[in-house]
Amino acid sequence: MSPARQHIEESELVSRLRGKDRLALEYLYDHYSGALYGAILRIVRKEDIADEVLQDVFLKIWDKFESYDSTKGKLFTWILNVARNQAIDKTRSREISKEKKTTGIDNVVNRIDRSEYLEQGIDDIGVKDILKNLPEEQRFVVEHLYFKGYTQSELADEHNIPLGTIKTRLRLAMKQLRTTLGVT
């Protein structure tokens, strides 16, 4: 069985990434790049920019992996946040107009040729199903912040919701998601 097809438990993967094991990074890329690419593309909306951001994400993961704390959450959550933050930073750069917002989570077509990749997409790992368990107002906040690339302030301003309400809904959603996922 090739290294890319072998299953590596998360704890072993984390340990190997901390040890700067290049095969572990290759495994991480092979299994998660599709989901990360989809999240990035939803934010930046341009394939060439999404490709660039994805490369930057994996460089950042490699260079900053020591900042990952497994007691605070799952590896996928951490790398998804790295990807999301890189994509948002890119949209704020001079290369991309600030006026362009991403389209809805259900309206975006993931343009990866699935036959060439082994990774799981966000839909495949059940993120949408997990979000369905949240109350509507909490789900709305999570989707806009994590999948549409809004900041808390932008969401508050654009949808005329007090910033404190946004923060409270996000905190409650994260608490419920941690409970649902069994993360303390």
UniProtKB/TrEMBL annotation:
Keywords attached to this entry: DNA-binding, Sigma factor, Transcription, Transcription regulation
An MF annotation (GO) of this entry: DNA binding
RNA polymerase sigma-70 region domain boundaries: 28-94, 131-178
Domain of life from the UniProt record: Bacteria
Biological processes, Gene Ontology terms: DNA-templated transcription initiation
UniProt xrefs under SUPFAM superfamilies: Sigma2 domain of RNA polymerase sigma factors, Sigma3 and sigma4 domains of RNA polymerase sigma factors
InterPro entries xrefs: RNA_pol_sigma-70-like, RNA_pol_sigma-70_dom, RNA_pol_sigma70_ECF_CS, RNA_pol_sigma70_r2, RNA_pol_sigma70_r4, RNA_pol_sigma_r2, RNA_pol_sigma_r3/r4-like, WH-like_DNA-bd_sf
Family: Belongs to the sigma-70 factor family. ECF subfamily.
Protein name: RNA polymerase sigma factor
Organism: Chryseolinea serpens
